Amino acid sequence: MDQPNRSLIEQDPLRTKILECVAQLALPQCYVAAGFVRNLVWDHLHGFDSPTPLNDIDVIYFDRGDYGYQSDIDYEAQLKQRLPELNWQVRNQANMHTRNQDKPYQSTLDAMSYWPEKETAIAVKKNCHGRIECISAFGLESLFNLKITPNPNRGRDVFDQRVQSKNWLTHWPQLTIG
């Protein structure tokens, strides 16, 4: 994410606070992903006066040494203590391949490359120097071009169901399916 785009997050006090809380966990390959970035960009490009409320905060990390789900629950509890008003969803991407019936993922970025929409596969974190870093499995161009694009690594039916159930095309009417 280049500097002008980073400023979208830096200008959002809630998102900044979320990134600070997540950084305190010091988890490997740890990012805040999905709607955290996607919705903010679409809101900005639609000229919304205030950000769309976040349904949940998707925290992703990659730890091959921890194959249980109890750690995810424990990390969610820690984050809930810091910001109790938010719905935290913490997932070790090293475990998610079994749920998704994929081959084992090799990293957080590899796991994101299997998410249903390309524009959801974007994540940010605050690094040890306090700067925002961004990773994306498919780049940022389609996100900033107001596209919602199916991932060829996932079935089209999953994509279609998510587009309909999440009401993206109604909430952000300038979106087009890529």
TrEMBL record:
It holds the Pfam family NTP_transf_6. It comes from the Bacteria. This is Nitrate reductase.
